[in-house]
Amino acid sequence: QVQLVESGGGLVQAGGSLKLSCAASGRTFSRYGMGWFRQAPGKEREFVATISGSGGTTYYTDSVKGRFTISRDNAKNTVYLLMNSLKPEDTAVYYCAARDYTSQEYVYWGQGTQVTVSS
Fold first, then answer.
1. Strand partners of residue 36
2. Rounded to whole angstroms, how far apart are CA atoms 119 and 61?
3. Which of 35, 63, 79, 94 has the most Cβ atoms closer than 10 angstroms to its Cβ?
């Protein structure tokens, strides 16, 4: 069982930056690939970024490439999402999730943190 708690959301002007954190419980954090997802009002949840257990491999959805950076600190059981050059369309609730190392499915989810970008 893994529990995830996001933090770092807030209100920021367009062009600004925010850094989200996701703290995980458990002693096997490094075995889980981690992902960030977001859900805007009236829209389906969408994938944002993912990072492998070691942190050596990352992948981003096209709309955030070059602006967002996912990273992790396995010693602190934490994954981060640094968001630069924010746009109003980035406004959403952001969720972190842990990917099961057997099924490769995202099976553990945090409660989400709101990010609002004003124009």
1. 49, 96
2. 22
3. 79
Q: How far is CA 113 from CA 36, 39, 53, 116, in A?
A: 11, 10, 22, 10
C-alpha dist (Å) from residue 32 to 69, 70, 103: 18, 14, 11
The DSSP bridge partners found for residue 93 are 39, 114
- The dihedral through the CA atoms of 58, 63, 69, 71 has a sign that is negative
Instruction: Return d(Cα 9, Cα 37) in angstroms, integer.
Output: 13
Q: How many residues does the chain have?
A: 119
Query: Using CA atoms, how far apart are residues 89 and 104, in angstroms rounded to an integer?
Result: 29
Helix (H, G, I), strand (E, B) or coil at 62: helix
pLDDT tens per residue across span 41-50: 999 999 999 9
- CA proximity to 96, closest of 63, 72, 64: 72
39 φψ region: left (φ > 0), alpha (ψ -120 to 50), beta (else): beta
Which two three-digit tokens encode residue 58? Answer: 């990352």
